[in-house]
Amino acid sequence: MLITRDLSLSGTESWELVREELVCVGAPALVANHHARSRRHWPMVAARSRPDLVARWAVATETAPDELRVIATYDHLFLAVTAAIAGTGFLVAPRLLVHSAIATGALVLADEHTIGSGATYVAYVNPHSAHTQSAVAFCRWLKGMLRDYSRSVTTDVLTSGGTST
């Protein structure tokens, strides 16, 4: 079985697991200090592993991407999340990736926008595997878990003062 966001495999049984949604988050003190400022003045952190995220968010929020001030770029999104928690800057990230940090208060939503990234996580099952039935059962279980998790994430966003769009 393969779970991917980037590949499309034809002729293989697949399961759409979850559609990726992006949010902009920051450490609570950073958000409080910059909330009244224009987005052009927000210090942003980015990840080389997902270089498109800041620009997608900028366009969706009607901000010119070249007006944003990226002050630090990390090799991987997980490192950028850690930097955002430390207060280095605002981060645009998949909502599922930062949900736990939002739930604990380590990160807060910087604005009310939830943006579809256009990416979908898909699981592919190898039809030649000796364990096809187990893989299919796992995909059904995982899809259900992610559906329930996505619902709880949406509920948390709504109750934390943000909105889900």
Describe this structure as you would to a colleague.
The chain is of the alpha/beta class and 165 residues long. 38% of the residues lie in helices and 28% in strands. It is built from 5 helices and 7 strands; from the N terminus they run E-E-H-E-H-E-H-E-H-E-E-H. It has helices at 28-34, 53-60, 77-85, 95-104, 132-159; strands spanning 2-4, 13-26, 43-47, 69-74, 90-94, 108-109, 115-125. Strands 1, 2, 3, 4, 5, 6 and 7 form a 7-stranded mixed β-sheet that branches. Helix 4 (95-104) crosses helix 5. It is elongated, with a radius of gyration of 17 Å. Residues 160-165 have low confidence and may be disordered.
Blueprint of the fold:
Elements: E1 2-4, E2 13-26, H1 28-34, E3 43-47, H2 53-60, E4 69-74, H3 77-85, E5 90-94, H4 95-104, E6 108-109, E7 115-125, H5 132-159
Parallel strand pairs: 3-4, 3-5
Antiparallel strand pairs: 1-7, 2-5, 2-6, 2-7
Helix pairs in contact: 4-5
Number of helices: 5
Beta percentage is 25-35%
The helix/strand series, from N terminus to C terminus, equals EEHEHEHEHEEH
Unreliable residue runs:
160-165
Largest sheet: 7 strands, mixed
Shape annotation: elongated
How much helix, percentage-wise, in residues? 25-40%
Radius of gyration: 17 Å
What's the pLDDT, averaged over the residues?
A: 87
